[in-house]
Amino acid sequence: MLTGELRSKIDQIWNAFWSGGISNPLEVIEQITYLLFLRRLDDLHTLVELFVEMQSRGEGA
């Protein structure tokens, strides 16, 4: 069951997609999946950059 806070966040996301012209639930899920993939890719890239920086300073393993 969705709590009030979670439901509110979901509604905000839905409204953002709706106002952007995406009203089909399958398209919304597709776009959210794509955004989550990009965020994960960015997180991994940031982690690699941090690791390289630590290696260059001699702090890494």
Compile the SSE list and pairings:
Blueprint: H1 4-19, H2 25-56
Describe this structure as you would to a colleague.
The chain is mainly α and 61 residues long. It has a domain at 23-61. The chain is 79% helix and 0% strand. The chain has two helices and no strands. It has helices at 4-19, 25-56. The termini are far apart.
Jot down its keywords.
0% strand; 79% helix; 61 residues; mainly alpha; single chain
Quickly describe the structure.
This protein is an all-alpha fold and 61 residues long. It has helices at residues 4-19, 25-56.
User: Residue ranges: pLDDT <50 for 5 or more in a row?
Assistant: none
Radius of gyration: 18 Å
User: What composes the largest sheet?
Assistant: none
Strands, total number: 0
The overall pLDDT average reads 91
Basic shape? elongated
What count of helical segments does DSSP give? 2
- Helix proportion: over 70%
Note the run of SSEs as H and E. Answer: HH
Strand-pairing-aware structural class: mainly alpha
DSSP strand content: under 5%
C-alpha end-to-end distance: 44 Å
